[in-house]
Write a structure and sequence with these properties.
By secondary structure, this protein is mostly helical. It has 6 helices and no strands.
Length: 232
């Protein structure tokens, strides 16, 4: 526990575990404020995902506009989607601060109040929340944040992009007749089709591995619960 918390102790060394009606009202307003901030950042997350979906839709429209259209827009849009993923992962770290505080108050104050049993030890959860206000920090790292966004949204976006790209290669302008023809269609300027194919395989294996690895980290921290709870 940090030294900053000492100034909040009562003269007899206690920590003020019992709330009076005024303190409960203040905590309720604090909870409403955290919910509001969580909602605002949640909206920002949704906006980033929407940008990714819209840009992928535009690339699909251009690529499938005619049999002779190039599949290159579907490759280039992948770079833009990666940028959106990085931006959204950073935003999620901010969102997770407010989300974690809301869940902490819900599970340690409101839920025991309603359930009337299995109450947390007095003082412990208040200390954790107070220290989080005194020394605010991210509750998860950037890679875990990115892994969560991949599992929630971007795995479907990247998967759909891959299916659309390879579908374009296979069926346009005419159905592919051989593997040589397949790789020839994938070539981009001086880069051979085999190189482009290899880069694609490495890229998709990388994000799949990151999603699996961060899922393991989340389960180690939160156990086998259905959702993410607590601080982080």
């Amino acid at each position: 526990m940090s030294d900053d918390w000492k100034k909040w102790q009562t003269p007899d060394g206690g920590t003020g575990n019992e709330f009076d009606s005024a303190e409960i009202g203040a905590l309720a307003h604090l909870y409403r404020g955290e919910v509001y901030r969580s909602t605002i950042w949640r909206t920002r997350l949704d906006n980033t995902t929407n940008w990714s979906v819209v840009t992928l839709g535009l690339a699909l429209s251009v690529t499938y506009a005619s049999p002779s259209a190039s599949p290159l827009p579907l490759l280039l849009v992948g770079i833009l989607i990666c940028m959106f993923l990085i931006l959204e992962s950073r935003r999620y770290r901010f969102f997770n601060v407010w989300r974690a505080r809301c869940r902490w108050i819900e599970t340690n104050f409101y839920a025991p109040m309603l359930f009337r049993s299995s109450r947390p030890k007095p003082g412990e959860w208040q200390d954790v929340l107070a220290n989080d206000y005194l020394l605010p920090q991210y509750h998860i790292g950037f890679w875990r944040s990115m892994g969560r966004r991949l599992r929630r949204n971007y795995m479907w976006i990247f998967g759909f992009q891959a299916v659309a790209y390879y579908g374009k290669i296979i069926i346009h302008p005419v159905p592919v007749a051989s593997m040589e023809d397949f790789f020839a269609r994938m070539a981009v300027g001086p880069f051979s089709g085999i190189l482009i194919f290899s880069i694609g395989i490495v890229f998709h294996l990388s994000w799949i591995s990151l999603a699996i690895w961060t899922n393991i980290l989340d389960k180690r921290k939160h156990g086998q619960t259905a959702g993410v709870g607590g601080m982080g």
